[in-house]
Structures are given as C-alpha cells and as structure tokens.
Amino acid sequence: MSPQDLTETRERVDAYPTHRIAGYRVRAGRPFPYGATPVPGGVNFSVYSDRATSMSLVLFERGAPEPAAELPFPAEFRTGSVYAMTVFGLDVENLEYGFRADGPFDPVTGDRFDARRVLSDPYARLVSGRDVWGREPDWNDVYPYRAQVVNDDFDWGDDTPLRIPTEDLVIYETHVRGFTRHPSSGVTAPGTYAGLREKIPYLRELGVNCVELLPVFEFDELDNPRTNPVTGERLHNYWGYNTVSFFAPKAGYAATGRFGMQADEFKSLVRELHRAGIEVVLDVVFNHTAEGNEYGPTISFRGLDNATYYMLTPDGQYYNFSGTGNTVNCNHPVVRDFVLGCLRHWVAEYHIDGFRFDLAAILDRAPDGTPLPNPPLLEQLAYDPILRHTKLIAEAWDAAGLYQVGHFPNYGRWSEWNGKYRDAVRRFVKGEPGMAGELATRMAGSPDLYQGRGAAASVNFITAHDGFTLNDLVSYNDKHNEANGEGNGDGANDNYSWNCGEEGPSASPHVRDLRMRQMKNLLAILLTSQGVPMILAGDEVGRTQLGNNNTYCQDNELSWFDWGLVEANAELLEFTRGLIAFRHAHPVLRNTEHPRGVDSMGSGYPDVSWHGVRAWHPDWADHCRVVALMRCGRHAKGGVPDDHVYVAVNAHWEPHDMELPQLPDGQAWHLFADTGALMPYGMHPLGREPLLEHPGRYHLGPHSAVILVGRAVSTTQATQKEMAP
Amino acid sequence: MTVKVNSRSEGDITVIALDGEINSTTSGGLQAQLLPFIRQGSDVLVDLTGVSYVSSAGLRTLLIVHRRAQQLNARITLVGLSEEVTFVMNATGFLDFFRIGEDVDSELERAAR
Which residue among A54, A381, A467, A618 is least crowded, i.e. fewest CB within 10 A of its CB? Predict the structure, then answer.
C-alpha cells in the first residue's frame, strides 16, 4: 500500500446528532477548542462561564435583525464551567452566532450578568458588524458585533517564518488604513490590507524588514462620541486601541470585509510581506477591552464572566490602570489561557512574527493591581513553544504610574520600547545642555538599562504613532490638538521638540534647511545606534500632522500617509533609504553585546571609543553638545570583519573642527554621509564612499552629523586622490 | 440553489461554463462536478462569465480544483472574471494561484496559434 492510498474515508462516529434543540440537530460538543470550530457535518461551539446559571447559543442569519434560533445548552452538554454543543446542518457563510448567559447581577460580588444581551464569543475568529470602515451601523442592533465561523484553510504556499535576528530588524510602525487611505496612494483598494500589500515594493526599496501594525484586532472605529469642534465632523477611534474581539482581524481594514473574507485578505498580506523579506509584528492591546467601565457597553466578557476577566476593587468597581475604564485581569489563570491562546492563534493561523504589547506593565499586575515580581503571564509567554521565536516587545509602562523601562520582567525574551532613548536623543539634538553623556549611553544600546539582556532588548525610537511625527518634532514647540475636541488638553506635553525658529510650516529657507538637517541628524543617530531602530511610517518623507501629537481620533489627512511627499521630500527619503542600507551593510552597528570599551580582538582599538573635538578626548561637560564615537570593525557582530564606523553629532549652533582618530596604516576615513549637505553630496553609495579631503580632520557644521567609514584605501581611490586638482 | 455547469469540447480543450453564485451552499456540488474533468494532462477553460459572486468557500473550491490539476499536470485557465470577482480574488491573494485569461474565444484562439 503506497502512502497516497491512505486517504481517510471512514466517517466519524460523532458526526451524527443525538438531540434536537429548537429545530436544530445537535449533540454534546467538545469543550476544546473554545469558540466555533467546523467539524464534519457541523460546527462545534464552546464557551466558558464560571458563574452563569444558564447558557444559550443564539443563531442569526447573516445580517438579520432578530435571531433565527436560540439553543439552550442542556445540563449534560456542560463540562466543568464550559458549555459545548455541536450543531449540524449550518450554512456557515450565512451564519452569525452569539451567546446568552443568565446569572446573578450583583456588582459588589463582581457579577454583571444580563440575559437581555446577546454576547459575542471571546474566541470569535471572525466578527461582522463593522464590515466597512466608518459606515453608519444600526445603533439599535440587538447584536452589534457578531461572531462568525471562519474558513481557516488558507493556502500558505511555501511561507516559512523569516526568523530575522532581533538586532538585525529595522522596524517600520504603520497603520493599515492610514498607509494607503490617502487619495494619492494610487492603490486599487485604499486603506486596506490589500492596499498595503500593493505598497510592498515601496517598503522593500526603503529597506525595512519588519512592519509593526497598529491594532488589527476587531475594534469599533465609531466608539468615539466626540466631534471636531471646528469642522463638526465625527471623530473616530482611528488607532484602534479598544479591542472588541481578540481573535478576529479588523473587517473594516479588508477590501473584502463586506464578504467576510478579511482573514484571507490579511493572511495574503502576511504571506506577501514574508516573501519580500519583511516580518510582521502586531501591536496588541491586552490591558483593557472596549467594554469600558460600568457605563460602557456589554459586548462579551462582562456578560460572560465579569469577575474573571476584569480587575475589580473589593467592592466590585473596575480598576482603571489603563486609563480607559477597565483593566483586563491578565494574571487570572483563565485570562492567562485566553491571552496565550490568542497569541498562539495569531502565530499559528496568521504566521505573525512578533507582538508589541500596549501598556504592558499592566500584564504584570496581580488581580488586585499589585505589580508581581514574577508575573505568571509574562513567564508563560516567554517560554511558550508556539511563541518560541516570536519577538515580544513591551511598552513597559501603564497609565497608572507603573514605569518599567529597563526592568520589565523579561525572562531573557522580552524587548522594550525604550522611552528613555526617545527622550534623550530628542533633548540632545534640540541642543539642551547636559545631554552628551546620556546620548552616548543610548547610542551604545542603553547598557544602564539592559545590562545582561543585550542591546536588542532596546527598541530605539524617536517618534511613534503616539506623539509628534519627525517633521513636527522639528517644526513645533507645542502640541496643537484642537482638532481632537478637548481644547488641546489631550496628548503629551513633554515632547522635547524645537521648531527651529518658527511655529509650524515655514517659508524661510534658513528654517527649512535647519529642519531638514535636524530630521537627518535624528535619523542618523537612530540608524547608527545599537539596539533595534523603529521608524514611524511617513517620517522618511517628512509627514506632518500639523502639530497634533495625539491623532488617535483623526481619520483624515492629518493621519494618512500622503504619497505626494515621496516626490516632494525625495531628499529625506533618499537619505533614510541610504541610512537603512548602511545599517544592513555594517554588522558593527548591530552588536547585541554592549560595548566594554576594551580591545578584545587585538585590533588596537576598543570595540567602541568615544571622542570629542579632539580624538580620544570626549567631553561630557554640561555645555558640551558634541558627541563622537568610533566603532571598531574588528569587533563587529558575529566576528565578521567590518569597516570602522565613526559617527559625530554636533547639536551646537557653531561648527566644530573634529580631529579624527587615526586608523591603522593603509586605512583611511571615507565619507558616507553628512547631514549638512544636500543629496547627492550629503550621502555616498555604499562601498564607493570618497576619501576625505583632509585625512585627519572633519569640519562639522552647526546642527550636523557625519558618518565616516574607515577601511583600506583602494589603489584607484589613491590615484584619484592624487589626480584631484 | 445550484451553479449550472455546461461543458463542451473544443479540440483538446474542455470548456466549462458556470452560471450562478459559488458559495457555501453550491460549492460542494460544484466541486464534485468539476473534478471529473481534471484528468492527466487535460486542458480546461473555466468560464466564469455567468458567475456574479464567489464566496470564501467558493474560492476554496476553485483552489482545490486547481491543486488537483497541478497534481495531474493538467492545466486550468479561468476566463470571464467579472470586475467584482477579480477584485475579491486579487485582494485575498487567490488570484496569484491561477492562470487567468480574458474570455473563451481569445483563449481558444491563443491555443490554436
């Protein structure tokens, strides 16, 4: 018998109904897995509730206002606190389902059952109700976010995980809708997964190898009650940090959401990104849900088992460590399983490569809110076999004052958004005194924060979705959030920004030149620092939000990527591309070990040496605004010999003549980039960098940065040099 | 509800014209009707001119038929895709798998050349 003859043809014994409930043929289901799972002849439904007194499965025909049927779970269909039933003969493509749970309503003890509600399945793989972004729904719908059964047999072809070492990543943070929604994007389906897929060639050309997507779990973009005070337009929940359903991809981000094909469309995007060598990291929000506090809507968790899923005060009120009304009870054993199951789902079913955890400090709080020294959820995620090679990135703080940058419980697995990197680089570049020493520490991979964990634990960023864009960081002293409808009271005030002489757009050539230089300085620091650089989408073309540093609600030109800038700001784009290529080409920039300041390779140079206006004499004094470092190529990551790299940043308003560290005989400094010069003179092609005119010195302009490579002088170069006039 | 299946031979090529919606209620029957046409080395044109909508289950049926064809070194070409069907197949990545032609006549002409 050959292997291909071994096709299973025997029917399953459990493929037959045993009961009839509400006209449907059913049998006792399997408690695992939770949610709705297609099985031979039917669908298996399973749901957990510890405190419910009764549970029904509610079935709708797709889009129908009223249920088609309600099937109470008989007592014998319950295992422990899990209700499971297999229903036969369902047309899954036209089916929506939910649950109705009855039980006590006694907020003081934590119970908030409400049998009037149809509850969404927490494990729903697909959710309808917000299928087309922004479309006005029926606000009186008895069941607004409707669970559906998904066809999960996607054809992945030969897709395999890329497993790019963390330290080699260049992360690009973007928003699925915002990336292509602007009319200038030119894609077939603007604002969708498919639209993003069409822009993969742009990402490849840019050189990033990881996209980090703002939340793509189903959320309700219409749950924002505010309007723009000036225009009267509806404000949205544009960013999506308010999850409705954790296992379901946002339908409104799919061009095919109205056909329920968002899972396929998103998977196709992931597959094609992988094919282009780009990993996918999801921004996930496990700290709170869209149900808010006691005044919020009952969507799912509150009605299924409020006391399990939420952190409650002793008198049953919602703890609010997230600043949004409720806090997910992450370290409750049942919720831990939920979070773990969710992440496994995204890795196994969607081939996701990593996660960035929003307000992750909440994930180490106990059910009463106390930070735990050894939080079981974080440990579990760190050691999980399915998540083994995924990137785990913490936003290591929360909205209730727990700030853990540098000491997030990490189990050797977790990286962090390094908020201190962001602040230090901003402050140095704007010219604040007393920042030289800290800038050096940050460029070295923040050894003060990540000693023992390595530089890859530090996700370095200067801008992110939350805050100013790069362009606005150098164009505004103050935030301008009036359009958000809160009288400019929302958003952060400590931006460490500098407008270079004029608030907002400027016609002055001097101001514009300075801004361009400052943006390049910031990018040059970011892409030559040890750690993992993250770029905010659009910063490479100078995207502006007109000074708004909190565009969570702005589904319009303020947030969208304007593709016209690709041409208009080609200067900055070309510079950014060049820097990214430079980083990929030089392993010496990507060491995971922090510099030790010693020569462990017998090269005659320490791994990293610090310099000032005089070589070997760094100046850490308060008034000093110049930092220079040399990375010895013999100490490059993995022992592969690399060029030496010298980076000097001058945040001073005066130029400085930099004395360069002398190189071994036969080697010389070559100019890769100078932010003080415009393209094409400001940057040179990799491997063809010209020799410096004055071998031992470099004249560094005011507010400028220079990147040099030290390597052997080729004979042709030497000849050219001699022949130069 | 069914999808109507009309087949005819044009030389070595089998032309199968479908009519109706390919969705979860019709796709099972359609698959059973289509698979017998896929034989070693056969050349099949599937004409979707009469198909207004292909659902998620429908796309899977087409893909299964396509995979069977690959196994048997047969060739399947889809023709007559409406703008909507093309859009959906493109957005979900299903289009990548298939050989797509414009319509039956132009494909037959191409084969005759």
Answer: A54
